[in-house]
Every structure is written in C-alpha cells, then in structure tokens.
Model the fold of this input.
Amino acid sequence: MTAETGSGTGRPPRRRLRHRVPVSLRQHWPIVAVFCAFVLVAATVFGSTRVRPYITGNASVIASDITENVAGTVDFFETDQDHSVNLAFSQSDYDRMIAAYQDEGEKEWITADITVDGTLITDVGVRLKGNSTLSGLRGGMGGPDGERPEGLQPPEGMELPEGMELPDGMEMPYGGQLPEGTTAPDGAATGFGGGGGPGGMVSLSADDPTSLPLLIRFDKYVEGRAYQGMTELSVRPGSPVLNEATALSLTAESGQATQRYSYATYSVNGGATQTRLLLEHPDDGYANSLFENPGVLYKADASSSFAYQGDDQTTYADQFTQVNGEGSQDLQPIISFLKWMDGASDDEFAAHLADHVDVESFARYVATQNLLVNSDDMAGPGRNYYLWYGLGSKKLSVVSWDLNLALSSNSTAGPHDSIGMGGGMGGPPAATGDTAGQPQQRGMRAGGPPQGRGQQHAGAQRQTETPKEGGRAMGGGGMRSGNALKERFLASGAFTEVYENAYRDLYAQLFASGRAVEVLDDIAASVPTSDGLTADALVQQVETMRTRLQARTDALSDDAVITAG
Done:
C-alpha cells in the first residue's frame, strides 16, 4: 500500500502498514519450521488413511475399525442387569432367507432393526447360523437336498426307545436319542442344540423365528458401526441352555480365552418372549483384545480338514477364515504347521511339537474339553475351534468355540476316554450322571494308563483325507470326527504328564472345589423368565444341571489320574 501525502487536507500522512513478527517467534523460528514440515508430511502421507479409534472394553483396549460405537444404556454383559432384545424384519425377507437355506443350503443376509435394552439400532444384518443345529430345517442331515449321504447312518445305539414314535414332521438328529416321553411342536424339526430340551436337543421351526440360531451383524449395512465395541452377536437356540453358559463360565474361570455371554428376554416382531443366550461373536476387535501380545485369529470351518494339502493358500481359504490382520498376515502359519506335522515322525513330533504349538496351553484346552465332556470340540464333526498364532512366540494355540454340546454327554468319561457324539443326548442324567440304557464310553482310551501310554486314540480315526466337497468328511457309521493334532498329542507318551497335570489342576479348581456348582447358581440367578420359560421350568433345569455337575465330580474323584496327584 502506498502512503498518501496530506498536503492541503489537514490530516497526517498515512504510514505504510507493516506486520511485525513478535520477538519470541523470531527467536524460535526453527521449532515453527519443523512443526510446519511435520504437518505437511502428515497431511501428505496419512490424509487418506482411515482412523482406527480405540474403544475401551472390559479390562481391554480393543483396536478396531469402528467409527460409530453405539453405547447403549447398560453393559450388555452385566449379569446384575435385566436385558431385552427385540428383532424386527419383514416377513418377505424372512421367507426368502428360509427358502434360500432349505433349497440351496445358503445362509443369506436380510435387513432388520434391533432394540437392545431399549436402544434402537436400524439396518443391521441377520442370517441363520450353525450347521448341525440347523439340520432339521432341511429335513435331516447331510447333502444339499437334506438327504443323508449314502452310507451315513446314525451311530449304533442311537435308536428311539421301544414303542416310541416321532410326531409327524419331526426328524431324528444324528447322534441324538429322544428320551421317553419327549415331544415337539407339530411340524417342528430337531437338531443339535445347547441344552434347550432334554439331552441338549432343541426344537426348530421355520414358523417360529425365535427358535432359530441367528447371527446379528451391526456393521453389515452400516460400515464401521458397532454396539459396545462388538460388530457381531450370536443368538443361541433353546432355553435356558445352562450347559453352554456353565461351560463358558468354567472356561473363563480356568483363565482360558472364551466368549462373553448374556441372557435376555428375546422376541421377534413384537411376538411372545423367549429366554435366550446371546454370545459375542469373534470379530476383529475380539481378536485384537484376546491376548496381551499381538497375533492372528483363524476360525476353522465345519468342513475343514486339519491336514496338509499343498502349499497353495487358496486350497485352505474355504477351510479357515482369518478374523484379523487381513492385509498384513495370511494363512501361511497354519499351512507351515500342517506341512511339518504331515512329515514328522512320532519321535520328531514328540521332540519338536513345542516349537510350533504352545503345549501347556494346548494341554489345558484338551483337558478342559474332556472335563466338560464336550463331544463337538476341535475333533468333533462341527470342527468347533479357533486357532491363534502369536506373532511374537511364532506358536499356535487353540481357542474353544461353540460349547453347546458340553456337559450333555457321558458324565463318567475318564481323562483318557474319548468323548463321542453317541450316548450323551439321552435326556436328564440319573444319579450317576448317565441316562438309563446309555452306551458307555469308558475303555475307549486315547493314550495313557492303564491300557498303555503312547497308543493310538481308539475312539476316533486319524484324519488323513480331505473332506468331500461341500461338507464334512463322511464315513460309514456316522459323521467323521477327529483331529490329527489332538490325536497325536494324546497318543504320544511324551505329553502324557503335561496333559494329566493340566487335567488334575483343572479338576481341582473347577470341580473338586465345588466351584462348578457355584458358577451354575450364579448363572441361574441371571436367567430371566419369559413367555417361553416359566420359573418352575427354570428350577427344574437348574436341578438337572446341578445333578450332572455333581455326577461329573464324583465320577472323577477316584480316577487314577486325579488320585496320582
């Protein structure tokens, strides 16, 4: 700006304006320059990068791609609070979802609104969840048309009691024996469940959406959304499924990784209420908060084969789902381990398994599944487990999943007995924990005294082949079970001591101490009644489970493994 002269105006001349830099700023210009350079670089490098906020959860900081975290009114996993969940979706969408599963075996997503403890969340994704549990919806188990594969028959002993007939439209589940007097709604089908009825069976009906196991996904249609840090929630079938809740709590009591759960009064489209168990479903946030040190979580598919099938990762893509670390990690840790195990002799397996697997952790996992008489763990037909690969330790661990068949099998099974699908589905336990006429499984020993250490697991086949395309590997006499890692671990005398020590410690902590019954009582206090579950029915179910837990405790008290300590 040019200064004007004021001749003849009587005003003083304007002075040239100068923006003076403060003395302090001139003295510290190098710091300012560095700061400006940092801002420029950050804007250039990270300008398009998505922010990964930290959501504070229970005693953990969960790193996840969450941009909208719905807080809700109360902590959903707070057992001292009453909880309610209502789903709302259109009948046409629901019919399409059911038809897709019945006709093609596809689990299609539909859009729904959900109200959790009074908080409405719109446009969530909902789909059917499960495999053997849903089998009744397709008229049976097995092939794509609901037909049983050729040569696949219910295990020996899985027959209806003499003189009993199934109601019209009701299917017999594999491995399931309907106890005398058991009935189901007209047109209902049965499948494996979580203690919702006698022997762990549940009644499923497409006419009653509250009876079906569902997966709810909060971020399916709204990217980055979560509810209290969770992107997925699983609705379990049956009521009150005390066996699954007790198994989950006892696993947590032992210090092992598991899933949080909550009971709620549950309804669909404003209909009658049911009492349902809801679990957090492992997602990216769950995986990132599972252990103190970072790692990668993988889910085994029900059709997976824990066997080496070459180095091509695409071969395993449909068998193992990577939960977290996508883009930076892949399936190679699993492939490398399977390749090593495939070529390892028994001596090499015994000498070097600890280089690949957290042996102490694995021993506790295997011991826990036996203690909980879970017939569908990593070696069961459902392949229910997750694999954890520690990026620091470079070792694999096993995380339990889907305990809906725990504490519903043979209560007298010993530490070295196999836990099969047969026998445990026959209704409430007698005083000994076993149903009258139930096939006994003692004597089917994995490896260890008194029938000899280091012998092959007698109750399961060594898994050496790839399952048939589109489903589980099948064989005459029932669904194929087994897992090479578990079987070789139990058959090797090198690991008998670590397994038995883990078993003895867990038995003392969870059963001999009386803690299992205390946990059951705590759970019972949190179970709400509903239109579908009366107070009297709940009391009866609690007493049935208490009898089973006591029977399990008593059956093991004199076992050689337990008394050896």
